[in-house]
Specification:
Layout: H1 6-11, H2 18-23, E1 41-44, E2 51-57, E3 63-69, E4 80-82, E5 89-91, E6 95-101, H3 104-108, E7 112-118, H4 123-127, H5 145-164
Antiparallel strand pairs: 1-2, 2-3, 4-5, 6-7
Length: 170
């Protein structure tokens, strides 16, 4: 992914108002991010612990940003969960069902779509081995890192297609 500026990030949001995008916390360490290793840029909003944001470059070159919500933490939940994007398993709340309001009229009517993702939004770093999960959390795969990244981008693009779908749920 190419390096993004705060202006690029704020202008990319499709499922919130311009005012919401302007108020969203954007990390100040953009120059320090490992852009070449990111298939998307995601972060949690420290001012709103139940929210995060994600910005991705679409296959057509368009930059698309979405805001997402976390469910409340589950207590006593001990099972492991699998991230839909990077196939990393995490215990407890390490994987969450992140929900995004749909873009346009469907979103204004309250329609959302969801995806199970790593709660820390570090999927690109896990597949490249730049961030380590617990031992055994990454499945042994025969795919190359680039093939895993391509799969991640394909799944994320399919999710973004659902967010952008003007028809809403069917």
């Amino acid at each position: 992914m190419d390096r993004l500026t705060e202006h690029d990030i704020r202008a990319s949001f499709v499922n919130c108002t311009k005012g919401e995008a302007a108020r969203l916390h954007v990390p100040h360490d953009l120059d320090e991010r490992p852009w070449a290793s990111l298939d998307f840029f995601g972060w949690r909003d420290p001012g709103a612990p139940d929210r995060c944001a994600l910005v991705s470059m679409r296959p057509d070159g368009a930059l698309v940003g979405i805001t997402l919500r976390f469910p409340p933490p589950q207590r006593g939940f001990l099972a492991r969960s699998l991230c839909s994007l990077c196939l990393t398993t995490h215990p407890r709340n390490g994987v969450s069902l992140l929900t995004a309001r749909r873009a346009g009229k469907a979103g204004r009517e309250g329609n959302t779509v969801g995806l199970y993702m790593c709660t820390d939004l570090a999927c690109p770093l896990y597949i490249r081995g730049l961030k380590k999960a617990e031992p055994g959390a990454r499945l042994e795969e025969s795919l190359t890192v680039e093939e895993q990244a391509e799969r991640l981008r394909g799944k994320l693009d399919a999710f973004l297609d659902q967010v952008l779908d003007p028809a809403g749920p069917r």
